[in-house]
Amino acid sequence: MHGMARGLWRSNNRSLVSHRAFDMNPTTPRLLFAAITTATLVCAPATQAAGNLIRNSSFETVNGVVHDQGYLPAEFEQTGNISPGADTYSNDDSYGIQPGGFGNFTGATAQDGIRFAAGADFGSFALVEAFGQQLTTALTAGATYDFSGWIADSFRAGTTRGGFDLLLSPSTAFGDAGAVTVGSLAPTTGVGGWEYRTVSFTAPVNAATLGYLILAPRSVGSSEAYIGIDNISLTTAVPEPATWGLMGLGLLALAGASRRRR
User: CA–CA separation, 163 vs 171, rounded Å?
Assistant: First the structure.
C-alpha cells in the first residue's frame, strides 16, 4: 500500500514539475506572442471600409432636367481650367448627356445606378476637366484613407487611355499652390468597360485646411483622354474585426502565461 502511494506521489510530482518547468520558461510568453502575431498578420485582412465621406457618390441625385455638357450634381463643383468642364451622363438621357452623345460612351451604361461623370485631359495635363467636392468632414492628419471607384475609357476615336489624379486642395481653383496630390487611380487598360481602381494615402499634416477633394483626369501620353468615373468612395482605413479578435486572444493568452509564471 505504501509502495502504491509512493508511486502515485512520484507520478503526480513529475507532472507538477513538468508544468512548473513549462511555466517558468521565460521564452514561453514570447513564443506565444510571436505565434499569435504571425496568425494575426496572415489570417486577417488589412482594412475594412468605414462610412463613405463622399456625398452622392454615384452621381444619382440631380436637380431638374438638363440636356447639355458641363453639368454635375449639386454636390460637385467644376475645378478644371477649361469650360464647359466635366460632364454627367444618364442612361435614360434625363440629365446631362446620354452615353452615346458625341460618340463618347456609345452602348455603355453607368456602373452603378443610371448616371456617371466624365472628364477630359486634353493632353499633357495642360487643359483638364477636373471636378471635386467640398468635404463635410475634415480629414485627420496622419490618418490612412482609402479611395476607390470605377473608371472607363471613352469610345470616341482619337482618345487614349487615362486615369485620375487625386488631390486635396484648399480651394476649387485649378493649380492652387496649396493643393497636394495624394494618389492616382491607375490608367485604364484599353480593354473597354468599367475597371475598378483603389488607392490608399496618408492625410498630410495640414489636412484640416485642405477641404476639397479633387479628381483630375490624366491621359497616358500627350493625346486626349476622356475618362468616365462612377461609384466612388473615400473611407477611413480601420482594422478588421478579425484583427481585433486575434489581438484580444493574444493578450488573454499572455496574461494567463504571466499568471502561471507567478
Answer: 22
Spatial separation of the C-alpha atoms in residues 41 and 62, rounded to whole Å:
44
Give the domain range for residue 175: 49-238
CA atoms of 124 and 77, how far apart (whole Å): 23
Q: Quick one: pLDDT at residue 124?
A: 87
pLDDT digits (tens, 9 = 90+) for 142-186: 999 999 999 999 999 999 999 999 999 999 999 999 999 999 999
What do you get for the CA distance between the two ends of the chain, in Å?
A: 36
Which backbone phi and psi does 47 adopt, to 5 degrees? Answer: -140, 165
Output the CA torsion 93→97→103→105 (10° steps).
Answer: -80
* Shared-domain flag, residues 132 and 25: no
Rounded Cα distance between 56 and 213, Å, is 14
Measured from the Cβ of residue 106, the count of other Cβ atoms closer than 10 Å reads 13
Q: What is the CATH number of the domain that holds 158?
A: 2.60.120.260
